[in-house]
Amino acid sequence: MLNIAFVGCGRISGKHFDALDKLQDRICVRAVCDSDIERAHNARSSRDCCSRAAVYDSIEALLTAHSPPPNSSQYNPKKENEAGTSNDRESLDAVVIALPNGLHAKVGIQCARAGLHIIMEKPLAIHLSDGQDLVQSCRENRVELFLIHQNRFNPPVQQLHQAITEGRMGRIYSIYANVFWTRPQSYYDSEGAWHGTKEMDGGAFYTQASHYLDMVQWLAGGRPWRLSGQLRTLARQIETEDCGTAFLEWGEIGQPDNLIATINMSMLTYPCNFEGSILILGETGCVKIGGTAMNKVEHWQMESLKAEELDLGSYDTESVYGFGHRSLYTAVVAKLNGEVLPESLAAALVSGRDILDNLMVLEGILLSAQGGGLVIEL
């Protein structure tokens, strides 16, 4: 059983709780925390997985309450914490951080110093230097750090990654990702108005398109060596972009036949979310996974098909988040317990050496756009 705290009960938390409701035999939510204490209490009262959780209004209160006591006689298990919830001082193994992007690194470092494994919503941070500080803190305190990219666990995506790994698409020529969603002005004006800000959000590439940037890198086999980007703010009254394009290149430096990829992103699609897709063009294969969250196989053509590929696990969803959170949490628990994971699930976990790759590319795209499309070498 993995004992966790959940920090940040805003927009995305519902998708996590949907998964955690189904995993109560493996994961126990011991604490929920949000600066809006009513929101934290609502999570406890409305979600079965949180029904036994203590409630806190700050990460400091949570860590103080659940840290090992220096002397067992110095605390009262029934003592009230700052939020007015009885504190049973149940020990924690890990913390899920689902806060505004600009708080990820700071709170993550606090949790690492408390000896907690970290399951972090994307992006890892807004600034690469902050992400590096977080990774270093996790290393120093010997805790694991996982980044949430749940779309890697979608059944069609798992099948595609396996086919590429087995070389069944031959040489990959190009990858194209489209993120055509809608975020009205009301989205940016709600929930504390942190969306669309440079300090707390970072921009649509950080908050929305980062899933697709991660997918492109995963299927391409790692971080690109060169990139450029163009970002625009066309319609929303925000500090960051509402649409943009990035161009990425892999392979040997200076070679004309490298793998290339483009990511096209817009938060201005009328009247609702339209597409979240990825298209792979290879020497012996052509695959497009679409829907709103890379959840449907729209085209699957390879030189030779396997029998299991006649049913590729497409599913319907109106949510841009997809249904991958449950599989992601299952993989994290198995990893922390030292269990042997199926190769496809182990490869889908974003942790270890490659956890900074996405943030490095995100910062590169931003720097390129600030330079008018400047070519950046990583």
UniProtKB/TrEMBL annotation:
InterPro entries to which the protein is assigned, alphabetical: Gfo/Idh/MocA-like_OxRdtase_N, Gfo/Idh/MocA_Oxidoreductase, GFO_IDH_MocA-like_dom, NAD(P)-bd_dom_sf
Name by which UniProt lists this protein: Gfo/Idh/MocA family oxidoreductase
Membrane spanning residue stretches: none
Region (Disordered): 66-88
One Pfam family matching this protein: GFO_IDH_MocA
UniProt superkingdom: Bacteria
Span of domain Gfo/Idh/MocA-like oxidoreductase N-terminal: 2-146
Sequence ranges assigned to domain GFO/IDH/MocA-like oxidoreductase in this UniProt record: 157-287
Biased composition (Basic and acidic residues): 77-88
